[in-house]
Structure formats: structure tokens, C-alpha cells
Amino acid sequence: MKKFANTYLGLVFVLLYIPIAYLIFYSFNSGGDMNGFTGFTLDHYVTMFQDSRLMLILVQTFFLAFLSALLATAIGTFGTIWIYQTRKKYQNTLLSLNNILMVAPDVMIGASFLLLFTALGFQLNFVSVLLSHIAFSIPIVILMVLPRLKEMNDDMINAAYDLGATPWQMLREVMLPYLTPGIISGFFMAFTYSLDDFAVTFFVTGNGFSTLSVEIYSRARRGISLEINALSTVVFLFSILLVIGYYYISTDKEEKHA
């Protein structure tokens, strides 16, 4: 049974990574399409880095992901603490509402934000995208932080109060350090969701702002360019570095609190 499970898992990973490997392989193709590999070249990477509009959008996308993840993590962490401290019947209701946002179709969420911003007369720009990304990232952070909070021994909190700590001191010296692994997980998950979101961003992006997912979609409609392959390769390699960084940071935090 274990051998079958390992084989199945390996097959799943192969199916997932073959398209990525195919995309990366053709980013070095000297030809102009993916119909056949005619030779090795770095021209598509050079063209990509020389495309000032694409580089600006790349920077905008990562800045948006970082800022939205940071704000969503802060709001989500304190929101999780508040939910945890509410009465049980209200807690279940709040968590159910949070979970609904997780499973709701992105198209519906994007359309809802568009209607909201339109009704308020809010101009679609960087701020509209930022607010939308913060909103759909908060439930992710809550799901990452809450299990860690439930594992926390209440005696740690009571001991802090018995020693004369104020609520802020208890939060800063006891609760937040204990929740750090969950907070880090929430931040990286929110960052990833923001980085690759298309459906919500497509609805709330104005003429003066764009993200990689929307830009790639727009360019793909005019024909696949191997410049996009090169860009996707760079983003994929950055994602690997992100995962490695997350692993070492979370492992270090776990060891310190072990």
C-alpha cells in the first residue's frame, strides 16, 4: 500500500512539474515559438529585462504582494485573537463566515469588489487592487494562525498576568512570539495568493495599474511570446527561493520555541 501511495504521489508531482519544465525549457529556445527547439539562447531574457513596462509591472506586482500580505497578516493575526476570545457560539459563526470567503469563487469576489468600488465612486487603481488583495488574504491568515493559537496553553497567559504583565505586555512577550510560526505561514501564503491572483485583480485593475497575471493574459491574447516564458521562469525561481526561505525561517522559529 505504501509503495502504491509513493508511486501515485510521484506521478502527481511529475504531471504538475512537466508543464513548468516544458515552459522553462523553451524560454531558452532561439526560435520564436514552442513548436520545436532550434538552439540555445538567452535573447528572450535580455528582451524581457529591456522591456521597461514589463519590469515596472514586475516591481509593482511584488510590491503589491508584499504590502497586501503585510497588512493582511497584521489584521488577520489580531482578528484571529479576537475571534478566539469570543464566545463559542459566536466563534463558530465567525469562522464559518471566514471559511465561506475561502471557498467562494474568485470571479464572484472580484465582481463584488467591482460593484462596491463603483457604487462608492472609488477610482480603480493601485489602492483598489491593494484593498481587494488585503480582503481576500485575511481569511488565509486566520486559517494559518488559528491552529497555532488553539495549541497555546492558557496557563502561559495566566502566568503572565499573575506576574503583573499588562495585556499589551502579555501580547508582545508571550502570545505573539508563540504565534510567530503561524504568522509567518500566514504571511507567505497571503504573499503567494496575491502574487498569482488573476480573477479578482482583473475586475478591480484600472488603466493606470496592472499586475503580472493581468499583463501576461493580455499579451497571451495577442500570441504567445517566449519573453513570457522567460518571465515565468524568473518568477518560478523566485518562488523556489521563497519556499526555501520560509522553510528555514519557520524551522528556526520552531526550534527556538521547542
Topology of this structure?
Blueprint: H1 2-26, H2 43-50, H3 52-85, H4 88-103, H5 106-119, H6 126-151, H7 154-162, H8 167-196, H9 199-204, H10 212-221, H11 226-257
Provide an overview of this structure.
By secondary structure, the protein is mainly α. The chain folds into 2 domains: 1-41, no CATH class; 51-257, MetI-like fold, CATH 1.10.3720.10. The protein contains 11 helices and no strands. The protein has helices spanning 2-26, 43-50, 52-85, 88-103, 106-119, 126-151, 154-162, 167-196, 199-204, 212-221, 226-257. The longest helix has 34 residues, at 52-85.
Radius of gyration, whole Å: 22 Å
Number of strands: 0
So how many helices? 11
CATH superfamily of the largest domain: MetI-like
CATH architecture grouping of the largest domain: Orthogonal Bundle
CATH class of the largest domain: Mainly Alpha
Largest sheet: none
Indicate the percent of residues in helices. Answer: over 70%
Output the CATH topology of the largest domain: MetI-like fold
Let me know the average pLDDT. Answer: 84
Low-confidence stretches: none
Which term fits the overall shape? globular
Which structural class is indicated by helix and strand composition? mainly alpha
Give me the strand/helix succession. HHHHHHHHHHH
Distance between the termini: 34 Å
How would you summarize this macromolecular structure in one to three sentences?
By secondary structure, this protein is mainly alpha-helical. It has helices at 2-26, 43-50, 52-85, 88-103, 106-119, 126-151, 154-162, 167-196, 199-204, 212-221, 226-257.
